[in-house]
Amino acid sequence: MVSKRRPLHPNSSSSSRLNFRPNVADTQKTDSKGSKPLPDPSSVVDILVMMVIHACRKVVFVNTNIKVAIYLGSLFIISLLADVLPFPKTYFSRKDNVFNMYFVKIAWGWTLILTLPFAVLTSYTVCCGKREKVWTHLVRLAVATASWFFWVKFFVFIESIYGVCTAKADIFQTKSMCLAKGYYWQGFDLSGHAFILIYSSLVIIEESRSIIGWEGIRDMIRNEEHIRTTDSFSPSTPLKTLSPKEFDSLKQSYETFTPFIKGLFIALSCLTVLWDFMLLSTMLYFHHMVEKFLSGLIAVTMWFITYRVWYAAPKIPPDLPGEGSFKYKDLKKVNEVPLRKRTSQAKGDLPRFMGMPLTGLRNQENAVESNGQPSTDTDVATSS
């Protein structure tokens, strides 16, 4: 007995007898289902900028709790060693060095020059052009400026109250009179440099957090635009609640402001490195340990009260950096079902294998409709 295998598709042409080889005519008839649009190819410049941004993030976004501990620990240990074992004099031990004269003495001005436009551009983008929300974000910098002004004036007041003139005769009771006569005023001089350098660095870190997840906004815009133009079914997306006007404002603002935002972030990263270096110089060559440690402790306390307590409290303005009309930071990826599986198969649609329609199943369906019974793959016994 020799068994002869019956062809699986007796009614099909010889060119389409393979089980998974589609017929050209059938392939053209099937509807091609859409999927999410692909991102544009990145240029060499985009890749280089991305590498620089990644390096800057490593510099700026160190764990803040660890950085605060390093600040306070260094102010205590290094400053104490500098008081007991004076370090050799260098260019940075001079008060008239370039970095001290043109950067540290106006440190808060440099910080505002970069953080203010960065906060304006990022908040305007994520708030979809709503200016009242942008003003709310700027309240943070106004509070920081008021804090800087108050504490600097307070340090000067403490020094003038708790101090004496170096003149032998106790005739100059005020600091201004003592200095006017050419003497020196010895007082409890809380370090304004230590305060402003630490406070500026912490403010830069917090305000720069808006850039975390910034590249993901481009993907959100592209996918949301595809959904809105094709009326595709999609689960809840971060941009789904935006009105057409808000969505258009987001697209335009993101494309226009992103290059400037990246440039400002790189500049803020460089400024943070400079502030940390000048803080080390202050620890080694200026003020006493107690004066620097108390100043640094005040800076950390102000940062904690504002960014960790006040701004983090819900429903109490201002919001934290990056808060706006939608959420884009720290979003978990949703395991979405592919579009082909989400859509129900209409009558006449065929299952697919690796993107190709299984035309063999259509031939079986045609055979069922014509003969009234399915064509099965059986072995027929023949006599030898």
TrEMBL record:
Membrane topology, from the record:
Multi-pass membrane protein
What main location does UniProt list? endoplasmic reticulum
Q: Which GO terms describe its cellular component?
A: endoplasmic reticulum membrane
Query: Which molecular function term from Gene Ontology is one that the record holds?
Result: coenzyme A diphosphatase activity
Task: Write out the transmembrane intervals.
Answer: 68-87, 107-126, 138-163, 264-287, 293-311
BP GO terms, sorted: lipid droplet organization; lipid storage; phospholipid biosynthetic process
* Region ranges (Disordered): 1-39, 364-384
**Where located?**
Endoplasmic reticulum membrane
Alphabetically list the UniProt keywords.
Endoplasmic reticulum, Hydrolase, Lipid metabolism, Membrane, Transmembrane, Transmembrane helix
List, alphabetically, the InterPro entries matched. FIT, FITM1/2
Could you identify this protein by its name?
Answer: FIT family protein
> Upper lineage ranks?
Eukaryota, Metazoa, Ecdysozoa, Arthropoda, Hexapoda
